[in-house]
């Protein structure tokens, strides 16, 4: 435990080095040196661009890029999946040194880094040349007005993944509404079956998506009007969704476990959860962890996400990433070339969607016969793209994120933990969350409307 | 050389000169430590102190705040909550560790032979395991899917409690910390016991003291300064509680909140929310509380322990 004083020391050391950094390079920002690449650089003499990314098939993607380019080479590092990577990037921004040239970011993180001037507008570097490859919604998620801050790779249309063995055994059909979902959960539980799903505290992005599905609009924010933000987290939709999941958890109909942990994956493998409310890229990550293999092979299927009002279905999104150029990049034009070119070649995209690591946003792939009619192995040959994911993606209208997503997610997570512990109600959690976020926004200098 | 100097110069001057030279040599010996001390402790502390006087908003940029961050820190429910947790935790874990360490040391002091040496090593072993590895190991032991606790419970057809759940994490951490540190404290007490002159025991036995009386009336009072030392160590360590909850956090289903302990809160503020200024103020506020608690404690134990008087 006394090691803690060392930690405190490290904190302060980190702060000092941050200071040293800004002194050393006379105000300029410097990216980390592209050495210690995880991949093998093919053309040694070409200039290198340092890329941070966590796609499970990134090694192949990088090799594809390097083999196809002689004028630039990618030096790749996996700096963590999601949050751990953002922490390192945030620290590098504060230190004014140590960031990569190109970084993989989720759409909900972009504005938080844009407001800190940490990302480069790619429009002057020819970003609009690749605009035609993407849908309007996908392009909107990465731009602010005419400025383009990242090049999209994949999206995360959400659907209901379920276990056919459990559904068959308890004779239930995929629920079309959330009411049916709750009823089926009760039915399976009463018959002695497993929990129906999971209300994990560590996937606040999922909960936010489900709130948006019910009609919540948590944030209205435009970078052009930097100081003003509208926050609405104590509305009825948010309260309803938190209450709905809180009650399912309290009744023992869904699990209370965090997701992506070894225990959770073990539960998925063992059929402990009948359904998984998740995005199109999930099967790739699950397969990588050993789910759906061996005796579990072919036991998964996917259905459209249950709705609140089946007459007016709403499609929501979880995750999906893009490549951005950091303002610390030494050669921004070269970095922009990498951001636009990496994971954009056919071989990489095909590998990505075939392993279900990505749900591609590239229109060329999205509309190709091979993709549309693919019989997905993980879902036992189901034509999941055509039936579920493509319609979901096409119906997705985009979302607006706050410039402090990390803080918002941490507070939502803390409220979910409280709900799961029976210490607060869904409605109270929404009210408290709203007040916390409003107070935080004000302390950060925003005018809250 | 010195001889020649003494011959040529008046004795007084030479003494001063030698002294001055000694002083310089002294500094030279200290230098390696001093460089590290200044570069890695003093300078960062000063810089963090400087940072804590400013405030930075996403939309406003950096402005001078004076002591605003400190008033905000002590009124911050998150900081207070963390502080309350570590104080509660200290109140339970420190007595527990000391009792375990003291009993083990007293027993090991009595018995001799190969078994005693082996036991000493085994009790001390957890301290030799890095804290991070220790925490990871316990994370596995507690796991509801593969942990042996659950497997044993399943054999008896019951469900073991998940020791990292919201209601149980206090005890789960208590166990990890006690396991990790008791052996270390045991060695300190044991060394103090070894330092006692055995003729005192002989005298006590002649006076008719039983083994138990020797242990509690003679040995414990004579190692009281070691006990005070341990108390101070564990108090400082526990108030800065960080590593174990940080490592076990990802598998604790959210039980380890961002404001679980003051140090975790400072970490979140700095490296997740990019509020280095406020994080520095939280760190200094925690330092102040630690200083205060230890000072109160040292005054309270002044009569008992000879170490700090």
From TrEMBL, chain B:
CDD domains: TM_PBP2
Subcellular location: Cell membrane
Membrane topology field: Multi-pass membrane protein
SUPFAM superfamilies per record: MetI-like (SSF161098)
Boundaries of every ABC transmembrane type-1 domain copy: 83-297
Keyword Kinase carried by entry: no
Membrane-spanning segments: 27-50, 83-108, 120-141, 169-193, 214-236, 278-300
Alphabetized UniProt keyword annotations: Cell membrane, Membrane, Transmembrane, Transmembrane helix, Transport
Chief location category: membrane
Family: Belongs to the binding-protein-dependent transport system permease family.
Entry protein name: Sugar ABC transporter permease
UniProt source species: Paractinoplanes ovalisporus
């Amino acid at each position: 435990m006394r090691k803690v004083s060392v930690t405190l020391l490290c904190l302060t050391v980190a702060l000092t080095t941050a200071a040293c950094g800004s002194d050393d390079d006379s105000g300029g920002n410097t990216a980390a040196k592209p050495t210690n690449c995880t991949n093998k650089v093919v053309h040694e003499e070409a200039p290198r661009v340092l890329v941070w990314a966590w796609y499970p098939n990134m090694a192949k993607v990088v090799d594809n890029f390097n083999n196809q380019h002689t004028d630039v080479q990618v030096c790749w590092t996996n700096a963590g999946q999601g949050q751990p990577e953002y922490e390192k990037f945030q620290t590098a921004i504060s230190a004014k040194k140590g960031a990569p040239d190109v970084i993989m970011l989720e759409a909900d993180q972009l504005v938080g880094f844009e407001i800190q001037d940490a990302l480069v507008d790619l429009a002057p570097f020819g970003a609009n040349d690749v605009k035609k490859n993407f849908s309007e919604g996908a392009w909107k998620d990465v731009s602010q007005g005419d400025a383009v801050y990242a090049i999209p790779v994949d999206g995360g249309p959400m659907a209901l993944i379920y276990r056919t063995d459990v559904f068959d055994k308890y004779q239930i059909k995929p629920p079309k509404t959330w009411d049916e979902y709750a009823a089926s959960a009760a039915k399976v539980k009463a018959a002695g079956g497993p929990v129906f799903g999971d209300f994990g505290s560590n996937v606040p992005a999922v909960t936010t998506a489900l709130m948006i599905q019910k009609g919540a609009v948590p944030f209205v924010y435009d970078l052009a009007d930097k100081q003003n933000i509208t926050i609405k987290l104590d509305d009825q939709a948010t309260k309803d969704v938190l209450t709905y999941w809180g009650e399912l958890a309290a009744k023992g109909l869904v699990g209370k476990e965090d997701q992506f942990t070894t225990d959770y994956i073990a539960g998925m493998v063992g059929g402990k959860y009948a359904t998984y409310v998740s995005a199109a890229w999930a099967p790739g990550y699950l397969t990588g962890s050993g789910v759906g293999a061996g005796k579990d092979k072919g036991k998964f299927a996917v259905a459209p996400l249950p709705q609140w009002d089946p007459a007016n279905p709403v499609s929501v999104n979880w995750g999906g990433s893009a490549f951005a150029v950091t303002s610390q990049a030494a050669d921004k034009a070269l970095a922009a070339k990498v951001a636009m070119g990496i994971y954009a070649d056919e071989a990489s995209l095909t590998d990505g969607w075939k392993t279900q690591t990505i749900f591609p946003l590239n229109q060329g792939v999205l509309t190709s016969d091979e993709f549309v009619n693919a019989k997905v192995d993980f879902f036992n040959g189901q034509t999941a793209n055509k039936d579920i994911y493509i319609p979901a993606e096409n119906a997705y209208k985009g979302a607006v994120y706050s410039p402090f997503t990390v803080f918002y997610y941490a507070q939502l997570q803390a409220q979910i933990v409280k709900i799961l512990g029976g210490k607060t109600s869904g409605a109270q959690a929404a009210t408290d969350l709203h007040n916390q976020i409003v107070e935080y926004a004000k302390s950060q200098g925003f005018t809250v409307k | 050389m010195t001889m020649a100097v003494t011959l040529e110069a008046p004795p007084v001057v030479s003494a001063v000169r030698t002294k001055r030279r000694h002083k310089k040599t002294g500094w030279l010996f200290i230098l390696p430590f001093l460089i590290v001390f200044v570069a890695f402790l003093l300078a960062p502390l000063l810089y963090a102190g400087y940072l804590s006087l400013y405030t930075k908003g996403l939309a406003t940029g950096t402005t001078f705040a004076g002591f605003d961050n400190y008033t905000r820190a002590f009124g911050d429910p998150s900081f207070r909550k963390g502080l309350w947790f570590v104080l509660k935790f200290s109140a339970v874990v420190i007595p527990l560790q000391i009792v375990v360490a003291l009993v083990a040391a007293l027993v090991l002091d009595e018995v001799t032979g190969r078994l005693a040496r082996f036991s000493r090593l085994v009790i001390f072993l957890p301290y030799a395991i890095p804290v991070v590895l220790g925490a990871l190991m316990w994370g596995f032991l507690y796991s509801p899917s593969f942990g042996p606790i659950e497997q044993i419970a399943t054999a008896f057809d019951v469900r073991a409690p998940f020791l990292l759940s919201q209601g149980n994490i206090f005890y789960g951490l208590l166990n990890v910390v006690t396991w990790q540190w008791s052996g270390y404290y045991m060695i300190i007490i044991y060394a103090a016991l070894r330092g006692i002159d055995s003729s005192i025991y002989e005298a006590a036995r002649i006076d008719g003291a039983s083994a138990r009386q020797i242990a509690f009336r003679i040995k414990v009072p004579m190692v009281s300064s070691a006990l005070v030392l341990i108390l101070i160590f564990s108090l400082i360590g526990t108030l800065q509680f960080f590593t174990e909850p940080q490592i076990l956090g990802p598998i604790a289903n959210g039980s380890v909140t961002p404001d679980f302990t003051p140090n975790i809160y400072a970490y979140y503020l700095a490296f997740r929310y990019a509020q280095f200024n406020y994080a520095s103020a939280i760190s200094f506020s925690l330092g102040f509380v630690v200083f205060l608690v230890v000072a109160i404690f040292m005054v309270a134990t002044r009569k008992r322990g000879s170490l700090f008087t």
